Amino acid sequence: MAEGFSDLRQLLRVKQKNAADNECQGKRFMSGPFYWSQYRTIEEEIALLDMIKTGIKQKRLFDDAQCTKIEEKIDRVVERAEKGKYKPCTVDRAPLRNKYFFGEGYTYGSQLARKGPGMERLYRPGQVDPIPSWVTRLVINPLVRTGIIPEGFVNSAVINDYRPGGCIVSHIDPVHIFDRPIVSVSFMSDSMLSFGCKFTFKPIRVSKPIFCLPLERGCVTLLSGFAADEITHCVRPEDTVARRAVIILRRVLPTAPRLGCDEDVLSSVANDSDINGLSRPEDNKRRGRKRSVAIQAYEDMPKRARADSYNTEPDQTSPLSDPDEKLDGCQISSTT
Predict the structure, then answer these.
(1) Nearest 5°: phi and psi at 140?
(2) How distant, in Å, are the alpha carbons of 60, 107, 117 from that of 171?
(3) What is the pTM of this model?
(4) Residues with catalytic roles
């Protein structure tokens, strides 16, 4: 045991604080001690694993038949997006991963005019589509009934659709935007959630994780505490061996900052060298391939455009229309 410490967790937290003091606050998770290291003792590694595991809860909630029904709905979302049925800010496309925001959406990564942790911003109200009723009925309501989340907790749902080899780089869900726990439900295939990895690019490489959490089809995963706030998590390319979808359910804090009327979103033009839309800001500068998406404030929009922005009823002439495509406006329904 290190001298002066009676608890290994205390020692690890002091190490983290020292790393944060030596690095700027925005880089503390990238430069701190919570990546795999050959210099940590076995005792320290065990204590670190214990801290991660205390913030994780998992439950296999959805059987094969339920998963199949939900996966059909996810395919319907993809079809509607391909036909342009959603608002522009709802759909975030990348070569091996498409993201669909419902209820609330936010800027991240290279989309930010000002980079770094804490700079993420919500879109303005009405700029993404409300949560579809099928998400509420088939996914949220079962979580509420089993006591996994309280009624009324979820006001943001994101569907991530990964192709084989798709990934999401190491990150922490913005603490100034999202309450805890972070809830995710896996569909279509199994995968792994890795903690404490470092990514490098061109070609993409991922360092050894501290801990890998299996994500089985139909499994619900909750992250809170240390696992959500003090260590990064990611999905590595080698862990996405088949198409996989995940529905992420979160509560946006009432104090979460939004884009101002004079702020733009910088969206990089995807090409084959981008990794799931997660290219580094300096890469975009070198390529010189950025476009600015100006988002008009609601109060500045013409009356007709205001009405259109909230017209979320499905096209009745569309072959994709069905009762589950109705939108709930982020409210949890009590019907099942």
Answers:
(1) -70, -50
(2) 25, 14, 9
(3) 0.73
(4) 106
